[in-house]
Amino acid sequence: MAAVGSWYQGAIDSSDDGSTWPALNATGLMSDPESHRWSNGSFTEPQARTIIVRVCNLAGVTPPTLAQWNGWTKQQKYAWLRTVQSQLYTNSGIWIDLADNEATWDDPAAIILAPLNLKVRQAPLGATP
Q1: In this structure, is residue 126 part of a structural domain?
Q2: Which structural domain, as residue segments, surrounds residue 106?
Q3: What's the whole-model pTM score?
Q4: How far apart are CA 122 and CA 129, in angstroms?
Q5: Using an 8 Å Cβ cutoff, are 36 and 26 in contact?
Q6: Is residue 49 in some structural domain?
Q7: How many separate domains does the chain show?
Q8: CB of 119 within 8 A of CB of 26?
Q9: Tens of pLDDT along 36-70?
Q10: Of 14, 1, 25, 23, whose CA–CA distance to 94 is shortest?
Q11: Of 23, 57, 76, 101, which residue is least crowded by CB atoms under 10 Å?
């Protein structure tokens, strides 16, 4: 996690090292250790590609070339990512997805956390974290 946060801080957002990203685990209980961290954001095309290329490199997956990426439609980019998502996750522990959130917003808990059987760790109601 620290390596990803450090890279993210250097390449994408100098004020964000990942340490405040919400912690996840399979139960959502604070008493169970975190297994993952969650981050999402609104990125420019070059930033999105930078993130995707970095995750591909970490996972040993060949990323699309700049010419391919720039030549693809949005739907083609999404389709390509769907073909490598599981391999990226298996090899790097990082699940990455794209959403355009045009017209309607995608529910990240439904499209990312639920399929990975992850929940945000939360203190029980009334408890002090």
Answers
A1: no
A2: 22-120
A3: 0.77
A4: 8
A5: no
A6: yes
A7: 1
A8: yes
A9: 888 878 888 888 999 999 999 999 999 999 999 99
A10: 1
A11: 101
